[in-house]
């Protein structure tokens, strides 16, 4: 079994063409090994379904092999699992697997996701596979990289499309750092994060401190809270639903593009290989046929030469007369053979000329 953190993609799949040809010749062996839980074979079978080699492209079946227990915590397998999830529009699963592939303890959940996604994009580019990653998601990541307000908006969009604990927690932390404690609590609740989480405690401390400071202020003004909308926070749900729908459309387009462009490339590789194999087969048959003709010609010449030799010896009774008889018979044999071959060639050329005239 491979080391759980071993990089196996670049070691075992360095060329799409070579991988396709290997799969065509060893498919049964690879599948048998994968079904037994061999890590390398599981990655290869996953790629078979991801690239559509001898099969239709199927992200779910690809994920089945990439998620084999033998690949638990394997970086490459997690990146590929994330990609299949992204194509299927399962963003929470995609982010989890991208982040799981990271070995950095300094990167945040989203930072790790972005880095590992770029790593996979770089590998696909090296293999000359289509750049069909979800462009809507790429734009959000680009906004995230800009920092400040753009990062806050990007985090909110990411939390909206994933709608899970890790991404909602990331937004809550940013809101907390921005001193927006009400929004931070809302995002913690949105992600169903346990109330015992330390961020809740930190928010409570900050709010309590702020209230104490207000209570000790001589300039504080009493305001009427009833019917006052200063504490209202605009519900972001409608906007975030629009973001999620756009990402879903982006995933569908990316998925369709991957299937279309990748399948065309794989089919071209297979077609060229089949044409090459057919050409080699025909050339081998032609060589075998030529050898067989040569063998028969040698046998026939030997038979006629021997017959001429025997006839010469019988008629004139000397060895030299046998030689002369053999030479004479062979001369007429090769002359007749030359004439028949020339006639055959002329008939073939005539048929070709007639065929061209008809066209």
Which features does this protein show?
359 residues, mainly alpha, Serine Threonine Protein Phosphatase 5, Tetratricopeptide repeat, 14 helices, rod-shaped, disordered N terminus
Walk me through the structure.
With 359 residues, the protein is mainly α. The protein has a domain at 1-127: Serine Threonine Protein Phosphatase 5, Tetratricopeptide repeat (Alpha Horseshoe), CATH 1.25.40. The chain contains 14 helices and no strands. It is rod-shaped.
> What is the third-level CATH name, the topology of the domain at 1-127?
Serine Threonine Protein Phosphatase 5, Tetratricopeptide repeat
Structural class of the secondary elements?
Answer: mainly alpha
End-to-end C-alpha gap: 63 Å
Number of strands: 0
Question: Largest sheet at a glance?
Answer: none
Strand content: under 5%
Percentage of residues in helical conformation: over 70%
Apparent shape: rod-shaped
CATH-scheme architecture of the domain at 1-127: Alpha Horseshoe
How many helices? The count is 14
* CATH class assignment of the domain at 1-127: Mainly Alpha
Rg for CA atoms: 38 Å
- Written as H for each helix and E for each strand, in order along the chain, the element string is HHHHHHHHHHHHHH
Instruction: Please mark out the parts with pLDDT under 50 across 5 or more consecutive residues, or reply none.
Output: 1-6, 218-232
Give the integer mean of the pLDDT values. 85
């Amino acid at each position: 079994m491979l080391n759980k953190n071993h990089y196996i993609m670049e070691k075992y799949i360095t060329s799409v063409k070579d991988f396709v040809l290997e799969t065509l010749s060893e498919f049964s062996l690879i599948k048998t090994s994968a079904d037994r839980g061999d890590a390398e074979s599981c990655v290869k079978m996953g790629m078979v379904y991801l690239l559509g080699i001898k099969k239709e492209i199927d992200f779910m079946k690809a994920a089945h092999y990439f998620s084999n227990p033998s690949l638990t915590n394997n970086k490459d397998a997690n990146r590929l699992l994330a990609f299949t999830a992204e194509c299927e529009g399962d963003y929470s699963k995609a982010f989890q697997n991208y982040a799981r592939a990271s070995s950095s303890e300094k990167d945040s959940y989203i930072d790790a996701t972005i880095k590992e996604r770029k790593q996979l994009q770089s590998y696909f580019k090296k293999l000359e596979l289509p750049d069909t990653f979800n462009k809507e998601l790429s734009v959000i990541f680009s906004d995230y990289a800009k920092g400040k307000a753009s990062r806050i908006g990007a985090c909110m969009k990411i939390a909206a499309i994933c709608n899970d604990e890790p991404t909602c927690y990331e937004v809550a932390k940013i809101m907390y750092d921005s001193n927006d404690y009400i929004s931070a609590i809302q995002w913690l609740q949105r992600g169903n994060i346990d109330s015992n989480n330390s961020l809740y405690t930190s928010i409570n401390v900050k709010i309590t401190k702020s209230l104490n400071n207000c209570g000790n202020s001589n300039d504080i003004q009493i305001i009427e809270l009833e019917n006052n909308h200063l504490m209202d926070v605009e519900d972001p749900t409608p906007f975030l639903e629009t973001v999620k729908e756009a990402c879903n459309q982006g995933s569908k387009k990316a998925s369709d593009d991957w299937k279309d462009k990748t399948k065309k490339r794989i089919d071209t590789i297979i077609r060229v290989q089949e044409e090459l194999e057919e050409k080699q087969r025909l050339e081998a048959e032609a060589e075998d046929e030529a050898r067989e003709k040569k063998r028969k010609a040698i046998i026939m010449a030997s038979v006629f030469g021997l017959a001429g030799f025997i006839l010469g010896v019988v008629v004139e009774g000397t060895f030299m007369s046998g030689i002369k008889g053999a030479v004479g018979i062979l001369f007429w044999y090769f002359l007749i053979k030359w004439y028949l071959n020339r006639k055959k060639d002329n008939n073939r050329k005539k048929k070709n000329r007639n065929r061209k005239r008809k066209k």
